[in-house]
């Protein structure tokens, strides 16, 4: 026990256990807060609906208000229980409940999004490294990186689909339209990675860079040993943005380019038949939101796993 | 430094895991064609899930079968639809699923349309071999320089209506004056504008134009007095909706319709378009075009005579869009847009072509009447001759609409 090394190890273990407990507690608290928030949202929705219907009934008394506020009848705001119940309904002509179908659609979209996300990380990182390497490149290229994000997705989506069908048949596997949607997702995801990555690569303090210099480390070595590790926390911040953006990109791509599956396609179809089944559109939108939250949580978990306790502390 | 390298390893592990996830998903599709296709069919059956994808895999499977069966090589063909899978395209799905395309040596992949997909553009840029497009939506890009041509005029009538509630008292185009008139835009408004102009109303000042979603909610909400509707789609949607006042579905007598076919400003709709340059330069493509049109028209003749089977094909092919009840309604109305085809199915009706062009030029949609290459009938004529030789009724002279029961929500 007198051995300071052993004692230090014990102390460290204890700290780790405490940290884990604290983390578990934090996690539980977050789940609880989130759940309460969802329930409150549900009550707000239902409360407003009841309020609006009361106004509708008394429309003669409050005509002005009734025409300004969103409508609250069942066509425009289906009851929340109907929306939730819709997940367990088996739509006509199919043999699975809607919840299961939406899960399958979500997996289709998740695949597009994941491929787009990974490609976005690679492209974004490559750009970040290139820009960090050369100031001239940074000055010349960076405006274009920013300008790329002002191009409306719906303008490029059909082009990408057609281009993919026609020009990408040389890949060793059969090119399919969903892969073009991944390219659209990549278009959204590379940007935060490039911008944050560049900041991260430039984040080491001058004295650290000078130290590397004094070791006669080359640019590649400095990148590997100093710049890139320093950029990881920045990259995770970017990845969180990129992950949700990849889902958005996949959904928008599906809607605009006519890929035969996924949540975006489903939202589009349910919007068309909204008049006869508004609950189903709400359900599809909820499923999209859940998918977005899911990928965010996955990246957050990956961040915790990668950076560990110290990394998080360093960040916060 | 040690911490950094641990971080790096963990980061690599995370990236590897993500890559594996993506690869695992991808393998479902790219792996064994049969297995992948089955998976797709499962998800496809329940939803629109992986539908276009499933088509692609279908193609794979056919290839596989063909190699086993020592048959002649099938020619791969991609067909770009104007919209999502629904009975509007039943003939093509029937031709695919019942083997009509295979019979003529084609392996056809049918690709969904989307909000921003212009079939003519996809066709011209080589993203598809043939495309289904309304005539004006083919002619406008053609005038802008795309060399595409209409090779088979499948629909002989327009399916576009303006639908109002009976109590709004809109029984004729004149009654639209001063009303809120819905339209979808994107080139769906031409017939409406020409119809208004035909009775001396200015679309921009004599009515209030309202941008309408692709559904009928705004009509039911009362935001629109006369809503744009396809007779085979949105019109049925109203009938499939419960009338909050009666608790029953809306009835046809609750509604009044303006039919552009009656007004005389109807424009030709679904036609098969091909790449005109390729038709001229590539005899093999022309031959494929004849085969494709022939098998497609055979599909349409089949759907006329086998109503329910085609509804099932569509429901299997695509999403549960509106459900089987809705697709049954649509199949019936689509048949009525095609049949009877006095000149033979797919043959251009010159009078309606002229009317379409007249409406388009008078509305400034087209700067000038299109040249002679905008449509050609030689391919359809050959296809029709082949079908007649095979004993298939190509005019449907005695076709009558069925009585399709409207189901709540179209389910």
Describe the structure.
The complex is a heterodimer of chains A (316) and B (411). Chain A has 316 residues and is an all-alpha fold. Chain A has 2 domains: 4-73, no CATH class; 86-315, MetI-like (MetI-like fold, Orthogonal Bundle), CATH 1.10.3720. Chain A is built from 11 helices and no strands. The longest helix of chain A has 54 residues, at 4-57. Chain A is globular, with a radius of gyration of 25 Å. In chain A, 41% of the residues are buried. Chain B has 411 residues and is α/β, with parallel strands linked by helices. Chain B has 3 domains: 2-30; 74-156 and 268-410, 3-Layer(aba) Sandwich (D-Maltodextrin-Binding Protein, domain 2), CATH 3.40.190.10; 160-263, D-Maltodextrin-Binding Protein, domain 2 (3-Layer(aba) Sandwich), CATH 3.40.190. Chain B has a 5-stranded mixed sheet with strand order 2-1-3-10-4. A 3-stranded antiparallel sheet of chain B has the order 8-5-9. A two-stranded parallel ribbon of chain B has the order 6-7. In chain B, helix 1 (2-30) crosses helix 2 (33-46), helix 4 crosses helix 13 and helix 14 (307-317) crosses helix 15 (323-338). Chain B is globular, with a radius of gyration of 24 Å. The termini of chain B are far apart. Chains A and B meet through helix 4, helix 6, helix 9, helix 10 and helix 11 of A and helix 1, helix 2, helix 3, helix 9 and helix 10 of B.
């Amino acid at each position: 026990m007198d051995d300071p090394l052993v004692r230090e190890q014990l102390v460290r273990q204890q700290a780790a256990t405490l940290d884990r407990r604290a983390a578990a507690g934090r996690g539980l608290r977050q789940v609880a807060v989130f759940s309460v928030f969802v329930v409150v949202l549900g009550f707000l929705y239902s409360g407003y609906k009841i309020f609006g219907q009361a106004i509708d009934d008394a429309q003669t008394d409050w005509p002005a208000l009734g025409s300004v506020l969103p409508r609250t009848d069942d066509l425009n705001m289906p009851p929340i229980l109907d929306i939730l119940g819709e997940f367990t309904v088996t739509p006509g002509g199919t043999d699975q409940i809607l919840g299961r179908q939406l899960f399958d659609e979500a997996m289709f979209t998740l695949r597009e999004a994941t491929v787009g996300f990974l490609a976005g990380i690679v492209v974004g990182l490559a750009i970040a490294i290139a820009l960090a390497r050369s100031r001239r490149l940074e000055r010349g290229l960076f405006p274009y990186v920013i300008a790329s994000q002002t191009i409306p997705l719906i303008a490029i989506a059909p082009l990408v689909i057609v281009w993919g069908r026609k020009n990408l048949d040389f890949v060793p596997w059969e090119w399919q339209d969903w892969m073009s949607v991944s390219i659209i997702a990549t278009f959204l995801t590379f940007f935060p990675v490039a911008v944050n990555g560049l900041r991260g690569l430039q984040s080491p303090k001058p004295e650290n860079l000078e130290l590397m210099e004094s070791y006669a480390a080359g640019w590649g070595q400095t990148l590997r040993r100093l710049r890139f590790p320093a950029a990881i926390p920045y990259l995770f911040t970017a990845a969180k943005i990129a992950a949700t953006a990849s889902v958005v990109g996949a959904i928008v791509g599906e809607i605009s380019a006519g890929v035969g599956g996924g949540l975006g396609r489903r939202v589009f179809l349910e919007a068309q038949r909204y008049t006869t089944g508004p609950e189903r559109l709400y359900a599809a939108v909820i499923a999209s939101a859940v998918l977005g939250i899911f990928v965010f949580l996955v990246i957050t978990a990956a961040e915790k796993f990668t950076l560990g306790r110290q990394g998080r502390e360093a960040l916060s | 430094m040690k911490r950094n390298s641990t971080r790096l390893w963990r980061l690599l592990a995370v990236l590897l895991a993500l890559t594996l996830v993506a690869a695992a998903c991808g393998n479902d599709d790219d792996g064994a064609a049969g297995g992948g296709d089955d998976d797709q069919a499962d998800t496809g059956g329940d939803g629109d899930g992986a539908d276009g994808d499933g088509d692609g895999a279908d193609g794979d499977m056919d290839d596989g079968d063909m190699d086993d069966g020592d048959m002649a090589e099938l020619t791969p063909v991609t067909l770009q639809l104007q919209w999502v899978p629904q009975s509007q395209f039943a003939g093509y799905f029937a031709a695919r699923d019942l083997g009509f395309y295979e019979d003529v040596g084609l392996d056809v992949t049918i690709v969904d349309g989307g909000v921003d997909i212009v079939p003519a553009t996809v066709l011209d840029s080589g993203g598809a071999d043939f495309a289904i497009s309304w005539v004006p939506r083919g002619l406008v890009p053609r005038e802008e320089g795309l060399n595409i041509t209409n090779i088979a005029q499948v629909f002989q009538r327009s399916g576009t209506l303006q639908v109002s509630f009976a109590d709004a008292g809109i029984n004729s185009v004149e009654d639209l004056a001063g009303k809120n008139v819905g339209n979808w835009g994107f080139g769906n408004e031409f017939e409406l504008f020409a119809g208004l102009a035909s009775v001396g109303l200015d679309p921009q000042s004599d009515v209030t134009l309202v941008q309408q979603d692709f559904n009928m909610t705004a009509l039911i909400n009362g935001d629109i007095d006369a809503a744009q509707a396809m007779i085979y789609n949105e019109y049925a949607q109203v009938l499939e909706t419960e009338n909050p006042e009666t608790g029953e579905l809306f009835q046809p007598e609750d509604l009044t319709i303006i039919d552009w076919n009656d007004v005389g400003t109807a424009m030709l709709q679904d036609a098969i378009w091909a790449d005109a340059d390729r038709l001229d330069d590539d005899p093999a493509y022309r031959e494929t075009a004849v085969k494709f049109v022939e098998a497609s028209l055979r599909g349409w003749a089949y759907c006329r005579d086998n109503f329910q089977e085609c509804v099932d094909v569509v429901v299997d092919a695509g999403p549960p869009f509106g459900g089987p009840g809705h697709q049954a309604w649509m199949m019936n109305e689509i048949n009525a847009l095609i049949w009877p085809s006095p000149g033979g199915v797919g043959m251009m009706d010159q009078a309606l072509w002229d009317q379409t062009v007249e409406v388009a030029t008078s509305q400034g949609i087209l700067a000038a009447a299109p040249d002679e290459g905008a449509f050609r009938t030689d391919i359809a004529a050959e296809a029709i001759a082949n079908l007649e030789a095979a004993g298939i009724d190509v005019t449907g002279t005695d076709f009558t609409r069925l009585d399709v029961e409207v189901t709540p929500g179209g389910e």
